[in-house]
UniProtKB/TrEMBL annotation:
Function according to Swiss-Prot or TrEMBL: Probable component of the wybutosine biosynthesis pathway. Wybutosine is a hyper modified guanosine with a tricyclic base found at the 3'-position adjacent to the anticodon of eukaryotic phenylalanine tRNA. Catalyzes the condensation of N-methylguanine with 2 carbon atoms from pyruvate to form the tricyclic 4-demethylwyosine, an intermediate in wybutosine biosynthesis.
SUPFAM superfamilies, per the entry: Flavoproteins (SSF52218), Radical SAM enzymes (SSF102114)
Compositionally skewed regions (Basic residues) per UniProt: 634-643
Stated name of the protein: tRNA 4-demethylwyosine synthase (AdoMet-dependent)
Keyword tRNA processing found: yes
Catalytic activity from the UniProt record: N(1)-methylguanosine(37) in tRNA(Phe) + pyruvate + S-adenosyl-L-methionine = 4-demethylwyosine(37) in tRNA(Phe) + 5'-deoxyadenosine + L-methionine + CO2 + H2O
Cofactor(s) the record lists: [4Fe-4S] cluster
Organism taxonomic ancestry: Eukaryota, Viridiplantae, Streptophyta, Embryophyta, Tracheophyta
Cross-referenced PANTHER family: S-ADENOSYL-L-METHIONINE-DEPENDENT TRNA 4-DEMETHYLWYOSINE SYNTHASE, S-ADENOSYL-L-METHIONINE-DEPENDENT TRNA 4-DEMETHYLWYOSINE SYNTHASE TYW1-RELATED
Domain Flavodoxin-like: residue ranges: 56-204
Biased composition, class Acidic residues, residue ranges: 222-246
EC numbers for this chain: 4.1.3.44
């Protein structure tokens, strides 16, 4: 299977190169992004900040010095024309600063196995993971224009310039605009100097604002064809369908194996299938998942890395005091019972109405999850900003978010799995999709139980979640009622999608009395690009101000039972809390005393949310100047940035 797809990929690449289709596609893609940007001229991440113009950054991914000297030459040449440039060794660069860049040029060699040289390894990994991570969104680099020059050797065959190609692909996937197509230099061909010169000319004339792109840019796409592509949605679908990663697997993992599956999915002769098939595995691994056994996974969250480096935690840090660098994200079931429109995986995940797969032991899953998680933490050693003490803390996770892809509650041994986590004094946050009320009823007390409330009416729930069950609405309502009956620390999680559910505030208010959740988390959907199975566009993405307005209205409609307690501006996320439970003498208590929680669990007596709540710090409270950003983290951040600046030349 792998061999077939690799060789067909290779064949396709060769064909694409031959016909210059790839650069034509890049151009079309960058055109359509530019178009989007015209509609939404302010970038998503920081809607309130004006964009200062940065000097052009010239990165070199260099091992033997060839790329570095080419990059140096380009820097000299551009500065000679009075252009502001900065030569950057990516080893000393903070990738989290990329969203601030407006112009990036990369000269990249390809090292062993098609990878970039070590000095660019971290930058490359950051780009690869961000590009595959739904939480990052596809517009994080939308302010940035870029171009890549590859220093490759045809002697390496299929991996010729693959580091440069990857870098360009990831930059584009994150919304950056490729202003001069990737130029693949060939050191064996002896033409690299000439190729570099032409590429540099193209860059120079663009930066000087000249209209003609120059000889370096080999774009010969007729204008009318571009325009046609820009408006043709079908094309986008075809493109997606051709991509080997976008395979319709519904019929494979949920139902009978189809012809498409080549019989590889049914394991044995009529035996029990494995949930994670080779295609799904490949797909998930590409997104940074470590697959455990045949149906579980862990992934190192972007925020775990961020807090390891003292650069801020996720909204769960602001709302509940979770230490992101000690948080493990895992799921014991990568399968799901919905096919949500905003699912970032565009339905390459298995779906099913009940557990029908081979099952792994909960103890094995927990041990393997911790093992894989700590391995990923160890890989952060030596990354800029990571301190020894953070790393040590990270190596013993205190929290587990059972909230990755899939439906954790489907796993028949979920209670034993939770016990195993609590035995290790690891807190448990679990998110379920409101399709299994009986599973909610039988679930053991956990630290915080979430139900995704993706829509507020039957019609919109059907449209948004595309559930597999015919009686999905009854299941949904019963799930909410089960939440109320649990008498635990509970949360409704709302994902606002403009035009789909963000207009239903009255209907949402009506759902509050069904589940009487302690908290309501409201988050704007993240845009992850459009594919054949997800038709979201930028118009569907709410701003932080939209999320705030929705939250405030919902609070009013609850007749004062809920108030807006916290916000995390960076993730576009707001928290409502039950006032009479969590506001004591005017002070919010949305945080959790995790030690107390573990004591309560160990006591085996029944307990309630009020028994282990803790005071919310002032910086996390709604309307605080810090916007939910821990000042301890920001102080550290400032120190770091001075250090980083000094290292750049
Ligand atoms: C089938 O299951 C067995 C036992 O779990 C496993 O070792 C084997 O790799 C599986 N085969 C396929 C084709 O998935
Ligand atoms: C809020 O908490 C109070 C006190 O526990 C409880 O009586 C009330 O029902 C809760 N409100 C909602 C809407 O859940």
């Amino acid at each position: 299977m792998t061999a077939i797809s690799t060789s067909s990929l290779r064949a396709r690449l060769a064909l694409a190169a031959l016909l210059s289709l790839s650069s034509a596609f890049c151009l079309w893609k960058s055109r359509s992004l530019r178009r989007r940007r015209r509609l939404f001229s302010v970038p998503l991440e920081n809607p309130n900040k004006a964009a200062p113009i940065q000097p052009a950054k010239i990165f070199f991914a260099s091992q033997t010095g060839t790329s570095e000297s080419l990059a140096r030459r380009l820097a000299t040449r551009l500065s000679a024309h009075g252009l502001a440039v900065e030569l950057v060794n990516p080893l000393h660069y903070e990738p989290e600063d990329l969203p601030k860049e407006t112009f990036v040029l990369i000269v990249a060699s390809t090292w062993e196995e098609g990878k970039p040289p070590p000095n660019a390894a971290f930058l490359a990994r950051w780009l690869a993971e961000s590009a595959a991570d739904f939480r990052v969104g596809s517009l994080i680099l939308s302010r940035c224009q870029f171009s890549v020059f590859g220093v490759g050797s045809t002697a390496f065959g299929a991996t010729f310039n693959s580091a440069a190609r990857d870098l360009a692909r990831w930059m584009k996937a994150l919304g950056a605009e490729e202003i001069v197509p990737l130029c693949e230099g060939d050191v064996d061909g002896g033409e690299v100097e000439k190729e570099f010169h032409l590429w540099s000319e193209g860059i120079l004339s663009l930066m000087k604002g000249e209209k003609t792109i120059g000889d370096g840019a080999r774009i010969d796409m007729p204008d009318d064809l571009e325009e046609e592509n820009e408006y043709d949605e079908e094309d986008e679908d075809e493109e997606a369908a051709e991509d080997s990663d976008v395979v319709d697997l519904e019929d494979i993992a949920g139902k009978a194996p189809s012809k498409k599956s080549n019989g590889q999915l049914a394991n044995g002769t009529g035996g029990i299938k494995e949930m994670v098939t080779p295609i799904i595995r490949k797909n998930l691994e590409k997104q940074g998942y470590k697959i455990i056994g045949s149906h579980s996974g862990v992934k190192l969250c972007r925020w775990t890395k961020s807090q390891l480096r003292g650069r801020g935690g996720c909204y769960k840090h602001s709302f509940y005091g979770i230490e992101s660098h000690r948080c493990m994200e895992a799921t014991p079931s990568l399968a799901c019972a919905n096919k949500c429109v905003f699912c970032w995986r565009h339905h390459t995940n298995p779906v099913g109405k009940s557990w029908q797969w081979k099952m792994d032991d909960p103890l094995v899953i927990v041990n393997a999850a911790i093992d894989q998680h700590t391995k990923m933490i160890k890989q952060m050693k030596g990354v800029p900003g990571v301190k020894e003490e953070h790393l040590l803390e990270g190596l013993s996770p205190r929290h587990c978010a059972l909230s990755l892809v899939g439906e954790p509650i489907m796993y028949p041994e979920i209670n034993t799995l939770i016990d195993e986590l609590h035995l290790r004094r690891i807190s448990t946050f679990l998110v379920t999709n409101a399709q299994f009320p009986e599973k909610i009823q039988m679930l053991k007390p956990i630290t915080q139980l979430y139900v995704s409330v993706d829509a507020a009416t039957k019609e919109s729930l059907k449209a948004v979640d595309r559930p597999l069950f015919g009686d999905f609405w009854e299941r949904f309502v019963d799930s909410l009622k089960s939440l109320r009956d649990k008498q635990q620390r509970t949360v409704y999680r709302l994902t606002l999608v403009k035009g789909w559910n963000a207009e239903e505030v009255d209907a949402y208010a009506n759902l509050l009395c069904l589940g009487e959740p302690d908290f309501i988390e409201i988050k704007g959907v993240t845009y992850c690009g459009s594919t054949a199975t997800s038709k979201l566009t930028m118009e569907n993405v709410p701003w932080h101000s939209d999320v705030k307005a929705f939250s405030e209205t919902l609070a009013i409609k609850s007749n004062g039972q809920y108030e807006v307690a916290c916000e995390h501006v960076h993730s576009c996320c707001v928290l409502l809390a039950n006032v009479s439970k969590f506001k004591i003498n005017g002070q919010w208590h949305t945080w959790i005393d995790y030690e107390r929680f573990q004591e309560l669990v160990a006591s085996e007596k029944s307990f309630r949310a009020e028994d282990y709540m803790a005071a919310t710090p002032s910086w996390a409270v709604y309307g605080a100047e810090e916007g939910g950003f821990d000042p301890k983290q920001s102080r550290y951040r400032k120190e770091r940035r001075h250090g980083a600046a000094a290292l750049k030349n």
